[in-house]
């Protein structure tokens, strides 16, 4: 499969929103309260893309995954209950969702690899992320990829597990 990772386009919002809606439904079916409070929503996605922070993983013309990438922009991370590995510049990613048709094909791992490349390309060697305490699939991916559990952060009153990975200056 030939996957590409790039900034999302406004015209792709319907595809992205379909992927996110199914991911929201999947989280609910898994018994999770993550993403069950009206977030993320269409406005959040449009805002991501307009600010140049929305990214897609594609196969040909098909959007197979979505995420938002920000640099040094997560105020809640300053209030961590625990300790980050670094205090330098960091890339943070949110709203990772993979199309139903592409689940189990390693697309989330591919996407996170591209996010790490994005960080390196911006001379940033820390990637920070959080997920719900019951998102076992994502926590397993973080552990597999070498992310360290650093403590807890809070979003909209909910506790989340916080992770960080320190990147090497070059991939090789």
TrEMBL record:
UniProt-recorded Gene Ontology molecular function terms: acyltransferase activity, transferring groups other than amino-acyl groups
Gene3D superfamilies recorded: 3.40.630.30
UniProt cross-references to SUPFAM superfamilies, sorted A to Z: Acyl-CoA N-acyltransferases (Nat)
Pfam families documented for this protein: Acetyltransf_1
CDD domains: NAT_SF
Alphabetized UniProt keyword annotations: Transferase
Domain N-acetyltransferase: start-end pairs: 3-170
This protein's name: GNAT family N-acetyltransferase
